[in-house]
Amino acid sequence: MSLFEMAKIPMEKASKLINLDPNAEAVISQPERTLEVSIPVKMDDGHVEVFTGYRSQNSTVLGPAKGGVRYHQNVSMDEVKTLGFWMTTKCAIAGLPYGGGKGGIIVDPRKVSKTELEKITRGYIDKIAPVIGEKKDIPAPDVNTNAQIMAWMCDEFSKINCQFAPGFITGKAICMGGSQGRTSATGRGVITATLELLKREGIKPEDATLAIQGFGNVGSWTAKCAADKGLKIVALSDISGGIYDANGFDPYKVEEYAKNNGGVIKGYPGATPISNEEVLEQDVTVLIPAALELQITAKNADKIKAKMIVEAANGPTDAEADVILEKRGIPVVPDVLANGGGVTVSYFEWVQNLYRYFWTEEEVIDRQEQMMVKAFGNVYDAAKKYNTTMRVGAYIVALNALVEPLKLRGII
Ligand SMILES: NC(=O)C1=CN([C@@H]2O[C@H](COP(=O)(O)OP(=O)(O)OC[C@H]3O[C@@H](n4cnc5c(N)ncnc54)[C@H](OP(=O)(O)O)[C@@H]3O)[C@@H](O)[C@H]2O)C=CC1
Ligand SMILES: O=C(O)CCC(=O)C(=O)O
Asked: Is the CB of 76 under 6 A from ligand 1?
């Protein structure tokens, strides 16, 4: 089964539970538009390499398509379509006036120079420029993309359109028209979702322990926001492996250590080295996968000892594992809810760009918190009402938001 087919399973379950018009499911099940582009780049040594890029616009029913751009050697059209589908669901749950989209380039950014990376980035924007724009489709960061890459994209798109176009992209540096609080937003939202679940499960935050897989933008900010709220993090990991300390980590110190250690957390003083698999299998209150998709599968779902899972990454749990976790009674806050803080603050950034007036960090954090708490409550209540998982509950909320505009627009 492709990733895209797998991703649609909870939507199909939700659709049955609410007796959704089958026409709505048929429309939502396919991206509106997909684009594959070739990006020829003259590399530093003079030879030309042709990179492949994608953009999938899953839906524009609720507003312009919205979603990040991923740079990774395993990017594929199937992955980009799936991530775009999750964006549609995520934006609908968060109550944003956006549809969903996603992009990606097949490249391992560690294997190209900074100059080559800039050329690849500009070449990608040149090729997808006709279909993107502040009222059409608004890209943002994802795995291995950051504020520097957003700045190159913004500059290239501005040149093509002969005008400064900050509203066409989010996740920018503050000096490029970015928003306060965007870099930390996804991790902060993950912790808001974690605290909401702990509250409903009757567990005090000070009694909870966390294991976090991944220490990039999302993982490191999840860890820092957790520590700021007094939660104890006992296990962390990145691509180099995992570290464990029963007394808890100070993620700010781990980050500082990684900066001076080739960007990896391996060898953190005083910590016990563990494998990436072991991080997922720690006996903790909350497991937070914050790396890539398909980390919790039929192979390890039975070995998970966490009392609950909050998905910071997109798609970390596969369909078989989802069934196993449900049978084992382990609640899972799904990706489309838990990591919605990132796109929520991207929305704030876009709004600020459109009217060229900027908010304080306190305003951003406060509004994000209110929207996350509301979205969590809607999903949790839908799951309870239909006696199902929070993942299916999330799709119930999203489908209910999408079906009426589909009818009113005359699409179904
Ligand atoms: N950035 C955002 O705003 C949002 C991101 N997401 C999702 O969150 C997830 C992480 O994204 P983001 O933090 O931005 O990406 P980054 O590229 O910043 O970080 C990814 C992290 O995962 C680590 N990693 C990769 N493979 C493994 C592995 N097998 N085991 C453990 N760690 C691993 C990487 O290690 P190393 O650096 O050493 O390679 C890195 O620490 C993705 O699923 C993304 O789609 C969701 C919502 C918003
Ligand atoms: O900030 C955004 O617009 C999108 C972030 C993203 O790609 C995601 O939520 O997966």
From this structure: no
